[in-house]
Amino acid sequence: MNRNELLKLKDGVHKYSDEKNRENLSLFESIIGYDDIKKIFKMSLISDNAVHILLVGPPASAKTLFMLEFLKLERSYFTLGSHSTKAGMMDYLFDYRPRYLLIDEIEHMPYKDQTSLLSIMETGILTETKSQKTRSTQLKTWIFATCNNEQKLLSPLLSRFIIFHLKPYNRYKFIEVSNGILVKNDIPLDIANEISHIVWHKLKSRDIRDCIKISRLAKSIEDVEWIAKTLIQYRKNK
Ligand SMILES: Nc1ncnc2c1ncn2[C@@H]1O[C@H](COP(=O)(O)OP(=O)(O)O)[C@@H](O)[C@H]1O
Ligand SMILES: [Mg+2]
């Protein structure tokens, strides 16, 4: 076997085990549905080159959950857009050179930090000028981010991402996701189902968090009905 073949084989083996590791990694267990998006993320993780992905969507559509799942990966760093400067994101990037940079609510990131991302995403080059001193380094970093409203993002930044627009859940999906979460949290299915239906039909809420809140109080179907009635009674007048 010549050297090239050996290298090829090694390369193949490496890739295979890499791929296998990713598959074995129990990523996304906490997220119900979105199988297609999960698959794309997994594809991005085994890509040789950095792939940047942005999730845009309404509240409670599991965006933050996705970011938190990536914290399971080695060399990942999570930051909130609004905290990037305060949390010293630039220092962290220089010091720890994370492979995965997770930015939740990236629309709140100051333009200064957004601009730094442009170069990292395109060339991997990270530069910073502070007190007339410039430092620079080369990174290989995947950026995964979320936002509610992409209009606040610089357009060159947007164009560097693969973007997925998560749609609000329809009734069927809402009840499936809500029931799934509640049952996972040890709520009996009949109570879970009652909560999901009452939140959608009576409270007319589209926020899964409302189902979770009620589930923490109710011990019976009667409780669910009574809590919903009380919430409606004390609702802010529109
Ligand atoms: N597809 C889903 N799978 C699991 N939990 C979900 C899903 N969609 C919403 N949730 C629940 O809704 C709540 C809000 O999710 P989160 O990721 O914080 O939403 P976002 O960041 O999009 O506002 C969480 O408590 C989560 O458990
Ligand atoms: Mg969020």
User: What name is given to the CATH topology of the largest domain?
Assistant: Rossmann fold
Number of domains: 2
* Uncertain runs: 1-20
Mean pLDDT: 89
Helix content: 40-55%
Any idea what the radius of gyration is? 22 Å
CATH class of the largest domain: Alpha Beta
Which of globular, elongated, flat, extended, rod-shaped describes the shape? elongated
Q: What sequence of helices (H) and strands (E) makes up the elements?
A: HHEHEHEHEEEHEHHHH
Tally of extended strands?
Answer: 7
CATH superfamily of the largest domain: P-loop containing nucleotide triphosphate hydrolases
Structural class: alpha/beta
Measured by DSSP, the beta-strand proportion falls in 15-25%
What small molecules does the structure contain?
Answer: adenosine-5'-diphosphate, magnesium ion
